[in-house]
Amino acid sequence: MRDRRQHHISSAVIAVKPESADSVLAALAGLENVEVHGAGRGKIVVVIEGPSTGVLGDTLMRISTLDGVIAANMVFEHVEMEEEKVHGQRTDAA
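^ thats the sequence. predicted structure below, dont judge the formating
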């Protein structure tokens, strides 16, 4: 039996009200699997990681509902295949 595990990585740009930037950054720091990579001029760039596109989408939806967020848009998504196993033996790696 094959076990192909996927790991999804996405970048997103979040547009925020300038007066809300600090509170949005604080809220983002509390979210699991979200890392802030840059902020300024009403925009925040984040990376979101998870086991599926659905998890990434749910996280982005949560971000979009934070007070002070104008828009949250996924920019890029990458999927890595972590490993493949056949009968418990690893046959390849990403």
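Residues 6-93 form a domain with the Alpha-Beta Plaits fold (CATH 3.30.70.920).
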